[in-house]
User: Fold these one by one.
Assistant:
Number 1:
Amino acid sequence: MSTESETVKVRHASPREVRRRARDWSLRTLYQIDVGGVTVDDALSGTMEQLRHEFVQNVRTGSPDPVTERAALECITAALAAEVAAGATLRVRDLPAWVQALFIDLPRRQEQLCRAGLARVAPVALFGDERAADWNTAISEPGDVLQLLHTPLADVREQVSLAAHAELAASARRFVAQSRACLKAPQTAAGAIRSLREEARTTSVERWRHAGRAAARQVVDWFETSDYARRLVTGTQTHLSEIDSAMRVACKGWAMDRLAAPDRNIIRQAYCELRWFPDLPARVVINEAVELAKRYGSADSGSFVNGVLGALLRAQTGACEASAERQAAEELECLR
């Protein structure tokens, strides 16, 4: 029996929520580098692993006891993190179908356990045909699943199956116990067990389809947050000299070490976004940096960060306008 399924659009965190979480993690990393003297690679590696662990532990599935989901997410995110660390380029839009595909074998595995358990308690003469029937229930492969990783999809799927084994086995034991009870009425036992089997099939397919969707949502949120945090840290560190030079001018000659460490690093990463993340509106970047300063800085940090970033933005806008005027003059000169 095969139950039709399709890749479901995953509703995940908004871009603003992704940026907010990523900036928190980026700020922690920049602080370790700036104040703690940790190397960029070590700080970033530690942050990425802590962030991954947080997402795994705080899984949001709606399940009352999401032990299986946590174990599955540990396998999935570890595989993805290893690929990213090795230089693989993954597209967020491909992740939901890939993650959901990891759960498609679980209903079939549960039915195999149910079948094996039934064979131990049911008389062969009574249930031979039922036990020999097709027990291979599965959720159909969702959409056009891409092979995202160097690690084969089947290998990660096997890891997820192992993570779910305890729950699959428990469900099979319940089915066998109910079937054993049906044997007390031999005349109706076959029909009763068939009904139990159909109910177990339906429950299993829905259970693991829901788990796949929840895992896909969590993986997308984790991946987008870690990707943005990583780009923000590396961008800030790559352009640190230029950022600090602009900050000295905007801070009217203040030495960088006189600025409070949280304020200094909040301004650094926000200016990185203003300069090298062109898709973000400047006002959004500044407003969200001010929120961060109010959370981690002193009582005056919000207004201070707002003032410095405003000065940096005006200087940047003026420099861009001057550059455009020079380019236009040069083009005009060439036409003469």
Number 2:
Amino acid sequence: MAIEPQNNSDETTHSDAQAVDTAWRVHSALLTWTSSVDQKASFVLAIDGAFLGIAAAVVSQDGRLAPSGPISVLLLSLSVALAVVAGGYSLAAIKPNLKTIVDSRIDSGHFIYFGHLKMMDAMRIRSALTREDILGALTNQLKEMSEICWNKHRRVQRAIECLRWAALGACFYVGVTLLL
């Protein structure tokens, strides 16, 4: 359904129904983006786990790639530390973002989030759905969700960056170890 703007004294406005429909579409897009970033974080975490597994195997072996000097030990240590930080960022990104304290007063502007709904009885939910400002509630929820989604994306970016530097350090480690 296309949104047709209505002119109202030089401002483009939409009916409440159109605005609510648009808000639900944005809500759906935010859910998709959040799901996508969770998948990316899980993928980065899997790569990170493989990296740490390989690092553990290298340290425990007596072969050619075992740390042989202070430079190689430093490079391997930094790489492992960065990989651990990357794992932390990935875990922080996929961690469910539940509010630990939900105000029991539940103001009328917050009744979309299931954490708020669980604090309300069925009659209060019905009242909110029929009498409260749905657009206002959706607006509040969109703001909250966009902040959560943004933070998840930033954490995944940081995880990838840490893992990139860890991999670079590991490459230098292999090079230094083979040369020494």
Number 3:
Amino acid sequence: MENNCLGTRCGVLRVFCAAVAVGFPVSGAWAVENVSIGQLGAVVGKAQIAREGKTLPATKGMSIFASDTLITSEKTAVKIQFSDGSSFMAFEGSTVKIEEYQIKAVGAKGVNVKSALDVAKGKVRFFVKPRDEGGSNEVTYKTANAVMGIRGTSGFIDATNPQKTQLVVLTGKVEVSNPKISGQAVFVAANQMTDVSAGKPPTPARQAPADLVKRLGNDASKVDAQDSKSQKSDDKKDDKKDDKKDDKKDDAKKDDVKKDDAKKDDAKKDDVKKDDAKKDDAKKDDVKKDDVKKDDVKKDD
């Protein structure tokens, strides 16, 4: 995962970073906003991340932090995958600020998640992972005229019109209200929708048209397909890297074998030379002995 820390970010609580990297923060403690809370998945088109007064180009695998703002251009779609398994997808012309994201381990496997996202404009698809093992979700999506409490569900929020928010729920249930009008919340179940206009309460939940659900699903499927394709491409690159490493290991082994063979050949040559030298010495000794015998014979005569 790419480290895009700026300023003092990530510098003071690395223990939390390590905990989030494996799935959850330290048991009983809320992870703080200086910790990476997820990463960018598919990036189709051009998008930017506004962070601490700086603007960064959005790239696949980029780390995401609480207080980041995602800004998408035309013909763009970006998916963010959170550490707890939840995600959201922003389509073209969207501005989404992550106002809060906290995660805390509960028991051996449970997790509590508290988050708030402000959809200033545009259209997003959200998925909040349902909790088990005693965990819970306190997830809120906001627009200019709507607040949506999400506990474990998926759907679409369309805020392309600043005067009107449209919510379509695919799974689970969402509580919707207009923050400027108290006491008139509406619960929207799976395959239902509602509209919230400026200065008005949410419309009663109604059945979402099949063609609308299909169109929204197709838009998201294209990005999911791109994300899957990118992941497969990354996996292939990793496989190629592993293959290259294996090839290097094989080459190293071959080199070692060649070196061993060369050493053995040199050793054999040395042995042959030593044997030849011994034979030569032996012959010289025999010649000397013969000469000595001849001299002795001559003396006797």
